[in-house]
Amino acid sequence: MTKLKKIHCRNYTLHLQQTLIMGILNVTPDSFSDGGQFIDEEKAVIHAKKLMTDGADIIDIGGESTRPGSQSLTEEEELDRILPIIKKLVSDLSIPISIDTYKPLVAEECLKVGAHLINDITALKNPQMIDVVAKYNVPVVLMHMQGTPKIMQENPVYKDVVTEVMEFLRSRSSIAQNAGINEIIIDPGIGFGKTVEHNLKILKNLRKFTTLGYPILIGPSRKSFIGAITGLPVTERVEGTLAAVTIAVMNGAQIIRVHDVKECKRALQIIDAIRGS
């Protein structure tokens, strides 16, 4: 059982009785799936509203691509991309806004203007990130990644991927809790420093991660492992994403991070009905 029945995102409360959907908004020119589509502020705002209308419970906004081989940005560059959009969406949306960043200044500036939670692919490895999250008393997603986005897919190796990822998340969660951060979500990091086989093993054995006692977020959306199995391009991976989402939820995931919110919402209505029957 998870320790949290609810996630308190400042003035919003998310209930975990049903699966939550985190809709992806990449304000980047080079993301693997939708790079360049929403770099324009007006288009980004319109898309965020569409994600909410389609059924998203959270909007996750990122200004730096973390696809394999991607280059990092400065904090200033990242803020230039996302801060004006966040300022607009805080008043325009009626759901929480998550910030996909591992940079302390980016996190703090976004929280200052009203963002509601932090999604950190480095699991708060930067001590200043721990300070920022604790200061603003917001939930945080701690994700596992082997290496960095630039090199993570060159040759990922594990003796036992499930055990090693679990131990990493156990350790990072403990550090966060000791710093006064109580609302923690864990993410095994599908596609981040993992082969196709590693990703499949994590999804198959996801139930083991529930023993850590935290809500589990999974982000399989349009990932390369789906393409490797089906032979399909990024634009044709909706069905593969839904299959991965189904397995993940049946194995204990409580939050799903996806691009295709409408399709995922419809699938989850059936999945949650079966699970609750």
Helix content: 40-55%
Work out the strand percent: 15-25%
Spatial separation of the terminal alpha carbons? 18 Å
Low-pLDDT residue spans: none
Description:
- The protein starts with 5 loop residues before the first strand and ends with a helix.
- It is globular, with a radius of gyration of 17 Å.
- It has one domain (6-275): Alpha-Beta Barrel (TIM Barrel).
- Helix 2 runs parallel beside helix 3 (104-112) and helix 3 runs parallel beside helix 4 (127-136).
- With 277 residues, it is an alpha/beta fold.
- It contains 9 helices and 10 strands.
- The strands form 2 sheets. It has an 8-stranded parallel sheet with strand order 8-7-6-5-4-3-10-9.
- Helix content is 41%, strand content 15%.
- The longest helix has 18 residues, at 75-92.
Keywords:
TIM Barrel; two-stranded antiparallel sheet; 9 helices; 277 residues; alpha/beta; 10 strands; eight-stranded parallel sheet
Short structural description:
The chain has an eight-stranded parallel sheet. A two-stranded antiparallel sheet has the order 1-2. It is globular. The mean pLDDT is about 90.
